[in-house]
Hints:
Oligomer: single chain
Helix content: 25-40%
Number of helices: 21
Amino acid sequence: MNTTDKAAGPVLSIRNLSTSFRTPEGWRTVIRDISLDVHAGETVAIVGESGSGKSVTALSTMRLLPPGKARCEGRILLQGQDLLQASEREMRAVRGGSIGMIFQEPMTSLNPVFTIGNQIAESLVLHRAMSWSEAEAEALRLMERVRIPAAKTRLHEYPHKFSGGMRQRVMIAMALACRPTLLIADEPTTALDVTIQAEILHLLRDLQREENMGVLFITHDMGVVAEIADRTVVMLRGDMIETGETTDIFAAPKAAYTRMLLASIPRLGTMGKSEAPRRFPEVDATTGEATEGRDMTEVSPSVAPILEVKDLSVRFDLPNGRVHAVEGVSFDLRPGETLSLVGESGCGKSTTGRAIIRLVNPTAGAVVIGGEDVTHAGAKALRAMRRSSQMIFQDPFASLNPRITIGSAIAEPMLAHGIADRRAAKDRVSELLEQVGLSAAMADRHPHEFSGGQRQRIAIARALALDPTFIVADEAVSALDVSVKAQVSNLLLDLQEKHGLAYLFISHDMAVVERMSHRVAVMYLGEIVEIGPRAAIFGNPQHPYTRRLISAVPIPDPARRGLLNPPLNEEIKSPVRPFGYVPPRRTYREISAGHFVQQAASA
Length: 603
């Protein structure tokens, strides 16, 4: 836990903050009577699900809500200065000066037409009265400080050339450029892979220690809260329902909602040697009491595979080389089985799934679905294949047409394949919505009228419309709040048991993967480096990268804080190779029944 100087008074003191938005019906209050303090060197976490008011609290503190459409009441004191009474000119000095902010999605926060160095230097020129040459030199120092490799050469590169983890480091460098007394971090690690998340948490902790900053950390990940927060504020639908020392919140939560949040967390190592997936705990929203989920059905290895992938490779040509996105991947999948593909962004997980469904064309290898090789299938054969093989995408909002109702979106594939007329399709839509836990009356609504969890259920209903036997679920639960994640994961497991569905479950969330999988394949730089039964992969990981993935998962227990592995301080290697590069032929060693690990390359 950080050492804080509470005798000196809080850096930030929020008192009775209420924020309202103007609607056609009048002013609507979205956060009510929020009070909290953040001291120097202290991390205070605000936790809660989407819509709880976490980000609105942060935006209210920074006065970033649209004037005329939002109003804030109460007091927000930054070292004694009431920000709600400050002029806009005074607030410009505060933003990026006294208060630094890291936003959830760095790509939307960075200007794509300016270089990274230019964007960091700009705040130094504005707030610290440096010349551009001085500011560029300081920007380079900041990039090195947040451990961006080859910072000098990358200073003049544009945001699109940086990985997600590196862009988040740039945002941290920008937020810290003017040595703020308070850092507001709004979901800074939510979309990151587990190993990159661990590095960002290490980095924030080290920088906070050096600068003695107060940190207001907004998240819905209770594992991250346990790792970094000194005190925790729990929010629900705009109200602050519980606050206290993080160790006390985890050890003895008082509010039923807090107990529900903690009970819904998937925890590594709880599965033992069970061969089958296990449902997430059923949590009573009123009492917060949890009932341990039951084990699902095991899959016999003697059952014939529904999917066979043989030496699959996908490569993309660039002006200066070739991306070996997927290289020599082989596995099979049986009816009723879940095989999880895990690894960091850029490892080839999603490309593998898309190549199997033929949303991208394989460069080499074979994909056999239901006994038919679809690698070179024509339009007619692909159309038939897609009746039995469907895909659930990571972002359901992007994959749903905003102009048509969700009933029309679910009915569309049935009408397109001619398996139902409009009346029968409408009845089937009602049945599918009920099946995924939604009301049939919702069919006439549009996608924007649903929450993220509900939209994901709609995407699942649409994937089920053609009665598929095989589904690629690409990060289907990664962006969901913890309790919604548990609900949607349980829905997928129940549907699998009811219909015998086979899932290729693509994810970087190792705790969810442990619950959902029969078998696990670990990908690194386009190759499978380890594959085997779930219990073997998690209980006896052999490849260094597999061990790294598992050890990087934050443990939702404040008593075990600081046990994350030391950061690697390096980016994942590039999959770009020169034209004419011939990858070495990989060999695998069998550790136990069905558990294979890649041998070190001989070339």
